[in-house]
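Crash report, auto-generated. Payload:
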Amino acid sequence: MRRKPQIAFFWLSVLLVALPFLTGAALGNSWVRVLDFALLYVMLALGLNIVVGYAGLLDLGYVAFYALGAYLYAWLASPHFGVHLPFWAVLPLGAALAGLFGVLLGAPTLRLRGDYLAIVTLGFGEIIRIFMNNLNAPVNITNGPQGINLIDPVALGGFRFAGTQQVLGVSLPSTYLFYYLFLAFTLAAIFIAMRLQDSRIGRAWAALREDEVAAAAMGVNTRNLKLLAFAMGATFGGLAGGLFAAFQGFISPESFNLWESILILCMIVLGGMGHIPGVILGAVLLTVLPEALRYIGDWQRHAFGHVYVDPSDLRMLLFGLALVLMMVYRPAGLIPSRQRKREFAAEDGVAEQEQASLYDARG
Amino acid sequence: MLEVNAVSKRFGGVTALEDVTLAVNKGEIYGLIGPNGAGKTTLFNCMTGLYSVTSGEIRLEGHPLHNRKPHEIVARGFARTFQNIRLFANMTALENIMVGRHTRTRAGVLGAVLRCERTRAEERAIRERARELLDFAGLHGKGRFLAGHLPYGDQRRLEIARALATDPHLLALDEPVAGMNPTERRQMGELFRRLRDAGITLLLIEHDVKLVMDVCDRVAVLDYGRKIAEGTPEQVQRDPAVIAAYLGAETRAAGAAP
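Recovered output after restart:
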C-alpha cells in the first residue's frame, strides 16, 4: 500500500522529464514553447491563488507584479541601462521588488472588500502598465511602448540558455532548456504554496476569507496577514516576470494588460480556487487550448480553401462558453478542494454529515 | 480585573452607551442583562475592540483596552463569542479551534515553508490543545465536521472552544444559550461553572433570567445605554428600577394603556 504513491511519483517524474521530447516529437518544437508558457502561467496562477484562493482578496491587478519582475530584469540585464547583472542576482531582486509593491499597493486597500477591492486593484494594475508605457520621457526609463529589447540570455555559471546546447550528449534547443529551468521553479512554487496552505499562516488566511471580524476577534492580525498575502502573491508574480523577460529577451507594456490579469484569474476559477491541483490544471488548460485552436484556421483552409472563422475570434467565443458551462455544471471548478465543493453544495452536506455520524456510532 | 470607566458610545446622534461604569472581579461569573437594544452588545464590541469608544476607558488587569485593535485585546487574554454565531463555517470544527491558537503561536512564512523541528512541534501542540478543547466543550469526535454543518447547540459550544483556544483570563459570551432547549441550557450552565473553576472569569450577556439567577455571582442591568442596577441576582431582582425597565412602572402601566 505504501509503495503506490511512490510508484505514481516515479512515473510522474519520468513524464515531466520526457514531456518536451514527447511533445517535440509529436507536435513539433513550437509546442515546447507553449509548454514553457504553461509552466510560467502555473507559477502566476499559484501566486494569485494565494491572494484570491487562500486569503479571499479579489485582486484584478495581479499582472502589475508580473510586469515589475519583468521590467526589473530588463533594467538590470540588458543594454538599456548598460547594466548586465547575472541571472541569479536579478531574479530574487525582481521577486523582492514585486513583493514590496505587493505591500505598498495592498496597504491602501486594507479596508476594502469584494467588488470594491477588485476595482481598486484593477486600477493599480492599469496604473503600473500606463507608467511603463509612458516613462520614456523626460528620462527614458522604460523605453515606452517600444519596450526593452536584447535582454541578456540566462547564464548559470558557464552554462548559457541560448541557442542549442549539448547536455549529456543530447543537443537541446533553448526552449527545452527553459522548460527544465521553469519546471524547477514551478515545482518550488508548488512546494511553497502547499506548505503555506497547511500552516498557521494558511489557517489564518482561511479564517480571514471566511469571516474577517471573527478572525480579528480570535486574535488574527488581519492587517498584517492581508499584507502578507499580497506580498507572497506578488513575489510569485515578480519571479515569473523575471523568468518571462529572460525567456523572451524582449518585453513591452503590451504583455501586461488587464486581459492578462483576468486570464490568470480565470485559470484559478476554472481549475478550482484554493486547490493547488485545480489551479495547475486551470493554468495548463487555458495556455494550451487557445494554441490548439489555431489549428482550426489551417483546417478551414484545407477544407474550404478559405478561413471563414478567425481562430482568435473563436478563441474568445469558446472561452466564454467554457466559463458559462462551468458555472452551470461545475461551479466550484474542475478539481475543487473538498471544502469548496461543500460550499457550493450546502444541502448535500447535511446528508453527508448524517452518514458520517452513523459511521461514528457504529465504530 | 476588568474595569469599565464612564464609557460612552455614540453613533451619530444615537447614544448607545452613556457613562457606563462597572467592574468585574477575578474568578466570578458576571451577568449583563437588559431589555433589547439596551446596549449590551455595543458594550461588548467596545470592550473587544470592534468599536472605538466615544469617551471613557476600559482596562483589563490595569492595561487599557479602549480603542485597541481586536487582536491586541485577545493577546491580553480577553476572548469573546458572538450573539449571531460567527464560526468559520467552511473550516472543520478542529480547524476553527486551531485558528484560536494563532496569538499563542509564532510560526511565520519561513517556518511554514521549511517546516523545521520547532514548527512541527508547534503544530503538534496546536492540534493537541485543539483536541483537548473539543473534548472539554463536549464535542468529542466531531472535529472533522465542517463547522457550518454542526447542529446549532454544537456550534455555540464550538465558538466557546475556539475562544478558549486563545488562553483567555476573561471570556465574554454574548447570549450563549439563545435558542437552546432546557437540557442544553443546563449543560451550558454546567460548562460555565467548569470554566470558572478552571480560573477563567466569565462575562455573560443573557436573556434567560433563570440561567442568570442560577449561575451569575453578580449582575448589572443596562437600559437605554445606562447602567440602572448592579449587585447579586437577588438584589437586582428586587430593584424597582429593574422591574420598571422590564415590566414598566406602575404609574405608566396604569395610565399609558391605549
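Post-recovery validation: The domain at 1-77+168-258 of chain B is CATH 3.40.50.300 (Rossmann fold).
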